[in-house]
Amino acid sequence: MATLLSIQDLHATVDGAEVLKGVNLTVNAGEVHAIMGPNGSGKSTLVNVLSGNPQYQVTGGSVEFGGRDLLAMLPEERARDGVFLAFQYPVELPGVRNWQFLKSAVDAVRKHRGQDELSIRQFDRIYEAKLKLVEIDAELMKRSVNEGFSGGEKKRNEMLQLLLLEPRLALLDETDSGLDIDALRVVAGAVNGYRGGDNAIVLVTHYQRLLDYIVPDFIHVLYDGRMVLSGGRELALELEAKGYDWVKEAVAAGR
Amino acid sequence: MTTSPATVAIDRYRADHEELSRRLAGEAPWLRDLRQQAWAVFQDSGFPTATRGNERWKYTPVGALARTEFGYPFAGPGERIEAERLHHLDPWGPGWTTLFFMDGQFAPHLSFSHITEPGVTVSTLAEAMTREPALVQSHLGRLVDLTLDGFHALNTAFLTDGAVIHIPAGLDVASPIHCAFIASGAAAARSAAVYPRVLAVLGEGARATLVESYIGLAGASCFTDAIVEVSLDRGAKLDHYRLLMESAGSYHVGMTRVRQSAGSSYNATSFARGAALGRHDLHVALDGEGASCDLRGLYVTSGRQHIDHHIDVDHLQPNTRSTQYFKGILAGSSHAVFSGRVLVARGAQKSEAHQTDRNLLLSEGCEIDSKPSLEIYADDVQCTHGATAGSVADEELFYMRARGLDLETATRTLVRGFASEITDAITLAPLRAYLEAWITGSIPELHQGATV
After folding, report:
1. Does the beta carbon of A15 lie under 8 angstroms from any beta carbon of chain B?
2. With the C-alpha atoms ordered B82, B215, B16, B69, is the resulting torsion angle positive or negative?
3. Which is nearest to B327 in space by CA: B268, B409, B244, B270?
4. Which of A47, A126, B206, B447 lies at a CB distance of 3.0 to 4.6 Å from B167, suitable for a disulfide?
5. Residue B55: which domain range?
6. How far apart are CA B126 and CA B109, in angstroms?
């Protein structure tokens, strides 16, 4: 299987504090990786660094995405090249129309791939079909981006964007946080519908609940800025049973 | 003693005033008296200065304006401009009634009426003086305090023509009424001082829409000193749009005075983009129970522009309601001022007043002075006020970039989004389309200013 993402010894800081202290991870096309860990372990930082959030500074290491140096690319270049971040806290954009925003985003990605911009009619056909999949009321989408959306509606809107942009790598940052069971079902349905042999998913979560709906191939535990454990599905159940203290103790004993 | 530049300018106004008075020898005696009285006040006060402890002009120095020699355009319009050309520059809708003034003079070939309701007057002041002299005499200048500052007096001293709108009781005028004041920029009128005047009188329950625009064509560098008086009788309703789009070298000082009777409503939306120095004074007196006003505005400044909005709302009677909602987009080393003052008089119980001013700063060098204030003498009222200023939010930019939009497109989209809150509320479709195109068109210039 082709390697899509290769992270080597990645170090990053936020506001001068080192949060990632040498992360290694390889993701192949067709795989789903779950990254778990206690609060503050660096999970969100990792996916934000991969997306190019300027709030974070990379201080060492390398990241290759599809054979390209990801860290040398601007955030918008990464997005066009197929890196998608589903935000933990999707941002409200006052006065920016949802429809217009989504079409601009799709057109930017298509242009990068050498495809023509979609006509309004072509875009509408795709847009309306995906809207049904994520069960968002079309009336709600007449508002500005995420403005006045509930927490669940914002996450569904993220999934709508995932389905429209068809990225090669989807980074899901705590996508399950704050969701009721119905919204969780819809979000998981969208992710599972998107999941395929040509793309990969890295999902960050604190709880294993999401993994009942989106079954990962690999689970990694990130603790204090490093990957300290890797395993299969059974690791999540062990964490659920024993809690993260067990990991902390194991790491402390190993040092 | 040497003659100061300011004195030279006053001399020019004096000479022009004398010449104008000679030419208007046959005018109505009451109007002549009003003009002479105003001249006497101006001669005494001159242009306002902040140094004399005048709070109203604290943030807007007019020294450069006072020192520049602007002359009354006796020669008339600099050139004849055809309607076709203006429709690209000025908002225009089919079915609009339009009064055009070119370099201070009425341009009949550009003016059309689509008014079908009987008894409505939309005409030049000169025409109204013969058709409805009593109405003009009883309303003109009634809401203006000549001693407030030199600009009020100067406009009145040079009062010659303008627009008069009279909607009798109970009439709802379908055609929007557009008063357009154009500076041609032609050589003959290059440094003209023009004195637009609009009088709008709405009878009981009357309704109308008024668009007032000030447009400077390329090369114009004039001085506009404008006064608009609006009188709303019981239950009358006026939607009033004001567009300030004078050219980059121009000075503009405009005063709007509104008096509202019981149950009337006044909805004003203003857009300010043009003029090197632009000032708008809006003073609304809610002088009848249940009267309400909704004042909105958007100002967009760049380069070394200075735009000042000075809003006063007086709640004089019970159950009156007012909102002020202004937004500013500032770039370059421009300077904007928003001073909004709400007064709630002792007897104005159960009144409600809200003031908000939000600013988007696109450069390091721009500056906003935002001063919302409340003066409350009644005890059972609901009042709020607030002002904000900030740059484009980093997390909003990153969110858009994470979806493939480049930094410049993301910034432009956010700026347009910031403005859309004001433009989206415009119910007059051709005007909304015009302003949206205009905002989109001015964004590259603002963005350029932002990176300097």
Report:
1. no
2. negative
3. B270
4. B206
5. 5-288
6. 17
Interchain pair B402, A52: CB under 8 A: yes
Closest CA to B197 of B158, B168, B150: B158
- Which residues are B445's β-sheet partners? none
Q: In terms of CA atoms, which chain A residue is nearest residue B408?
A: A76
| Distance between B395 CA and the closest CA of chain A, angstroms | 7
Are residues B402 and A85, on separate chains, in Cβ contact within 8 Å? yes
Residue A101 pLDDT exceeds 90: yes
Judge whether A24 is closer than 8 Å to chain B, CB to CB: no
Maximum CA pair distance of chain A? Answer: 61
**Buried-exposed string B45-76: b where 16+ CB fall within 10 A, e elsewhere:** bbbbbeeeeeebbebbbbeebbebebbbbeee
CB contact under 8 A, B403 and A161: yes
Total structural domains in chain B? 1
For tokens 């004089």, name the residue: B316
* Minimal-distance CA residue of chain B relative to A97: B417
Contacts of B430 (CB under 8 A, 6+ apart): B91, B92, B93, B94, B96
* B212-225 pLDDT, tens digit each: 999 998 778 899 99
B377, B345 contact by CB (below 8 A): yes
ipTM score assigned to the predicted complex: 0.97
Residue B376 maps to a domain: no
Judged by CB atoms closer than 8 Å, whether chains meet at A91 and B417 is answered as no
Q: Which amino acid is at B256?
A: T
What is the DSSP track for B360-388?
EE-SSS-EEEEEEEEEE--SS-EEEEEEE
First vs last Cα of chain A: how many Å apart? 34
Chain B residue closest to A165 (CA)?
B403
Backbone angles phi, psi at B180, to 5 degrees: -115, 130
Q: What is the pLDDT of residues A123-166, one digit of tens each?
A: 999 999 999 999 999 899 999 999 999 999 999 999 999 999 99
What's the confidence (pLDDT) of residue B452? 32
Residues 74-93 of A with CB under 8 A from B: 74-76, 78-80, 84-85, 87, 90-91, 93
DSSP A90: P
**A95/B417 CB distance under 8 A:** yes
SS3 B184: coil
A238, A239, A241, A246 alpha-carbon torsion, rounded to 10°: 100
Task: Let me know if residue B304 belongs to a domain.
Answer: no
For position B48, what pLDDT does the model report?
Answer: 87
In sequence order, the 6+-apart residues with CB closer than 8 A to the CB of B301 are: B272, B273, B307, B328, B329, B330, B331, B332, B334, B335, B336, B366
Task: Determine the Cα–Cα distance for residues B205 and B170; give it in Å rounded to an integer.
Answer: 5
How many A×B Cβ pairs under 8 Å? 77
Nearest residue, CB atoms, B405 vs list A51, A52, A76:
A76
* Residue B104 located in a structural domain: yes
Q: Which two tokens stand for residue A29?
A: 């096309």
Rounded to two decimals, the pTM is 0.89
Residue B172 falls within a domain, yes or no?
A: yes
Rg of chain B over all Cα atoms, to the nearest angstrom: 22
Residue A1 distance to chain B (closest CA, Å) = 27
Give B412's contacts in chain A (Cβ within 8 Å).
none
pLDDT band at B63 (very low <50, low <70, confident <90, very high): confident
Taking contacts as CB-CB distances below 8 angstroms, the residues of chain A near B401 are 52, 74-76, 79
